[in-house]
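Cross-posting from the modeling subforum.

Setting up a comparison between two proteins and wanted a second pair of eyes on the formatting. Protein 1 (sequence, then structure tokens):
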Amino acid sequence: MDISEFHAYGYSAALLIGLGLGIEREHAARTPPGDDAGLWEWPGARTFPLIALAGAVAAHLGTAVVTAAFVGIAALILGWYWVRTHLPPRPDVGTTTAFAALVAFLLGALAWHYPSLAVALGVVVLVLLAVKYPMHEFAERMIDERDITDFCVLLAIAFLVLPLLPDRAVGPYGALNPAMIGRLVLMLSLIGWVGYVATRILGPRWGLLIVGFGGGFVSGAATTAVMARTARREQDSPDALPAALIVNLSTILLVVVITWVVNAEVSAQLALIFGGAAALVVAETAVLVLRGPHDRMPGSRTPKAQPSTGLLDRPISVPATLSLAGILLVLLLMTKGAADIFGGGGVIAASAVGGFADAHSASLAAASAAGDAITVDTATAAAVVAVGTNLLTKLVLAALAGSFRFALMLSLLLAAPVVATVLTLWAMAFG
């Protein structure tokens, strides 16, 4: 007998969702002993599973039944809510449990048709209910009206502007793609927003570090530019320097991983070549992050700035974001022009030029050609050169978006990893 004929998965999912939501609601609204409000106790571990199961049964019986049952349960919840608000000991009753009960019914109805989707959405609802205090703390104390406006700008870029941009190459050498430009602006805005939230929650030291590491997987050059601009706005704050440094660890890790997808031998050689550099980046970042609170940024003549309230004074600064995107587009245009001049000859030369814009794409292209058009050693060398030229792009952006001092200190910190990489290459070539 096929268990699916009885829709056991749907009913089980509905009960599971209701039980999870009910236990959380009952735990969140415990009535103190002796409180008369307990006579009208909140829906909890028994009521929510019944509501979700009612949704599944209604869905089994038909759409009309779902509509009628939803109206009936909504009326019952509304009546319960009215009584609770007029009960003398506790007149102040939130609406979250009432809405959660309605959502439980709808999720139960959905579970009858799509159990997996209903459970996934149930987990999301459960998380939203469970993080009540952190969410209220964040909404009330960590953001203001200006932040909400900036977040609306981000949503407008993502869902209104970006879909309207044509996805085709235009301009000199076909280097300018409007959709790509829009994605670049959105990416820079997202990096700024994530950094703003992270530093609000964790403080500038750990918040920026997380953004630097994560942003490095999206765009190492863009993240470096954002960190450099943060350092300039915060008067040489030392918190942006380790964040810009750890970007390079993300670049190395991603190059090794994506080349492994197309050629494991090239990836293994790259892991060996960059292993020492990655270890040095981690060590230097740890030293910078864990240094004493009264330290200053190396080479800075000014005391360390007070911790920032966020990654930027505003998470999304449209003029600043457009200026950073413009710098990257100029570099991309120069890259396309140089590639056109070089022509198709020389994989290493092409990788060097491509690396100015994106080390990962150039490395992946070289690894894909290994074994057919070029040798594994040549593909490995091309990937290393791409990472090297991409490092130059980061340093240029650090100087343009930040300050010469910031770019100089970042260069000094990266000198040891670069030397380690060169020595490893020399040992592999002549060892």
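Protein 2 (same layout):
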Amino acid sequence: MQLRYTFRVYPTSGQRIELARAFGCARVVFNDGLRARLEAREQVLPYVSDAELSRRVITLAKLTPQRAWLGEVSAVVLQQALADLNTAYRNFFASITGKRTGRKVSPPRFRSRKDSRQAIRFTRNSRFKVLDNGKLRLPKVGDLDVRWSRTMPSDPSSVTIIKDAAGRYFASFVVQTNEDETLPPVEPELGIDLGLTHFAVMSDGTKVTAPKFLRRAARKLKRLQQDVSRKQRGSQNRKKAVVKVARAHARVADTRRDWQHKLSTTIIRENQAVYVEDLCVVGLGRTRLAKSVHDAGWASFTGMLEYKAARYGRTFGRIDRFAPTSQTCSTCGRLDGPKPLSVRSWACPCGAVHDRDVNAAINVLAQGRWDNSNACGAQVRPDPVPAPRREAGIHPDAACSTRSVEGISVL
């Protein structure tokens, strides 16, 4: 299994200049490669192959006066920038041909030096090294000071250096581990109904109140945004104010991620199987509840449950989003029809009185057991599903990778 470990990095002022140069060179190579393919398409020429593209925008470009400065950074950084472009194109082609499930993937876009997230990747070919003194040696950058919060199980195969909108630097390592981390089997199984007032309602009756981290920080964010609006555009004071806003948002995101990691770890450790609804977060994000939906972070939480279940040998399942879990009596199975959100409890003609959310969680558990059982009624654990990679250029809209309590994701 491949795991990703993320640690905070503190480069010196000179190393920040070298990293900025590497970010810029990788961005230029990515944009040159994208431009070459777009021009070939406009001129009805054959699709530029990966090898030909590398020869044009890296090998030959270094020989020209306009791109001679590409030789100032590691060649692996430039090659990985093109690898990101090629992966983005493959994802786009697979999406439009129907080979890729889920939302449609848009074609790759040009990178900007004003993007809130900058990233470069070093592989083993670049000969990066973790030194005995705990520093990370990168070619043509130097020895970076890393805050190690845990020990990696094996030598990393690659490292991605990330700079987020708040000006923080992170080193994200990919490691291969063959260690069996399967937890001892337990009896409980859990169905979870996600909501806004209560973040999660369990089938055993437990209710977890929504922390609403963004709402709690709204007053401070409002004041910081007002400070930005009062600064002159293009001034240094405005840039400083923008960074303050980014740091406040990063603090909210880090707090939410830390809380979700703790809750998801507890759930996975205490239950043999966990089932949730396949919510359409994108659709809910277009309603009047959009701010509360994004503040809840359902997608990231279910993603944590999924990869932790795969890592620790638990069962995880998603039920159909159109299953009438709130309309079905969990006692007799009678479909009682749709109800407005104001109805928080209801009585079934069979005599059972239900809490709307607890009843839905019980139905989620029952539906999950049904969907994950074979003809003989035995439980079938689904194959481990890898979590989406968060690399540079592949997913332009992906959230920044930041340090958290767990700090680990499955590739």
